[in-house]
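SEQUENCE-TO-STRUCTURE ENTRY
===========================

Backbone structure tokens: a row of integers, each naming the local backbone shape at its residue.

Task: work out the structure tokens from the sequence, keeping to the layout shown below.
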Amino acid sequence: MNKFNHFIGIDISKEYFDATLLVESNIQKHNQFANSVKGVKGFLKWLKQENASIENTLICMEHTGMYSKVLSSVLLAKNCNIWIEMSLKIIRSSGLQRGKNDKIDSERIALYAFKNQDEVTLFKAPKKSLEKIRVLLSLREKMVAFKATLITNVNELKLLDKELYRITQKHQKQSIKGINQDIKKIEKDLETLILEDEKLNSLYNTITSVPGVGKVTALSLICFTKEFTTFQSPRQLACYCGVVPFEYTSGKSIRAKPKVHFMANKKLKKQLHMCALSCVMHNPEMK
């Protein structure tokens, strides 16, 4: 593990990001940059001016989805040490706080990186094929949900007004047909991506060999776990997926029913629940 002597906390928003540089001697310097390729290049130039070498600098930021995409991709291309941490962990580690703004948030992130540098997990970009699969799965999910909404609305009209039902069904028939065609195209593209990657194909075949586990669940597991490299044990994965209930008791008075933690991945939890129901329904030995 590298011995870092410079720590940078970055608070990212849509249009810009705030950066606070923390040196071991606790000297803090702050700057703000545009959230663009040009802005990131300006950030790297600023690091050079402050004598913060890429090899000995730890850059910490929160999970912000698409907002951090440009920043993380440019920094990875420059071989920077990036730590993308869950915002809740940073907030809880800061203790009792009053007030906030972008500058203060970047300072807190820098301090978090300094205090917890021994626990750092450097960010590695997922494979391009996994990124493509993740985007296609997300698009497929939205299309399936939209199709279900259309069908539900029509079925409700059937009970209330048959004439309106026929009119609505007539006009949205082509829409549903088009959505079905798009879903099939997405699934075909997913199959192509699986076959093109030997490791991905092997993992996919292994997961789908489990009774009840289908294509979408298998690919979701692979994407969320980055080909099962994110977690060190089955227990950690089960906890992340939300299939492990936790005890909640204190003294003699508090005896709550064990339940899944609210921070579980609800999407995977739902998919695994449906897999279990499917397995029980179609496999008599599992009942």
About this structure: The chain has a mean pLDDT of 89.
